[in-house]
Design goal:
This protein has about 170 residues and is mostly beta strands. Helices cover about 10% and strands about 40% of the residues. The strands form 3 sheets. The protein has a 6-stranded mixed β-sheet with strand order 1-7-4-9-3-2. Strands 6-5-8 form a 3-stranded antiparallel β-sheet, with no helix packed on it. The chain has a two-stranded antiparallel sheet with strand order 10-11. Belongs to the cysteine dioxygenase family.
Length: about 170
């Protein structure tokens, strides 16, 4: 099965707020890296949909961006996190994912196959597969993903629980 990147920007869901030129450039770099990767690779070719836990692998790089493939068995979740200062974009290749976004309160949106999501470096979210089948998504982060901050929701507020630096484990 070959996945294609949506040509139109219309289905994209974007973070709100004023974006600086640098943020816009990073989001465009992430989106371009995704499009180029999908034009030259079949990200679903080696995906094992029977793995019982969420898996992620860095599958490439674009100009100033890292590309990651994530499989999401039913019920799997990222937990609340950000991507350091990296902006990003992801496309759902199969299945559907629900993204909870933190803006002082949690809001949710469901993204089906071929849906694209772009975000800036201040984006905090939790992504969950509420479906009954494994979902697969392809993500790009610009500049390359160097750190992630993890959060926990406590009494209606997000509190930092850890900051992960890029290492051999990811």
């Amino acid at each position: 099965m070959t996945a294609t990147f949506p040509a139109s920007q219309a289905p994209a869901v974007r973070s709100t707020g004023r974006a600086s030129s640098r943020t816009t450039d990073r989001r465009q770099a992430a989106r371009t890296a995704l499009a180029e990767h999908l034009a030259t690779h079949d990200p679903l070719a080696h995906v094992d949909l029977t793995v019982p836990e969420r898996t992620w692998a860095r599958v490439g790089t674009g100009v100033g961006a890292d590309i990651w493939l994530i499989t999401w068995p039913a019920g799997s979740s990222t937990g609340w996190h950000d991507h350091g200062s990296a902006s990003g974009a992801f496309v759902v290749l199969t299945g559907s994912l629900t993204e909870y976004v933190w803006t002082g309160v949690a809001t949710a949106g469901t993204l089906g196959a071929s849906s694209v999501r772009e975000f800036d470096g201040s984006h905090i979210h939790d992504v969950v597969n509420h479906g009954t089948e494994t979902a697969v998504s392809l993500h790009s982060y610009a500049p390359g993903l160097a750190a992630m901050t993890r959060y926990e929701l406590v009494r209606g507020r997000l509190q930092v629980t850890s900051v992960e630096q890029r290492s051999e484990s990811w």
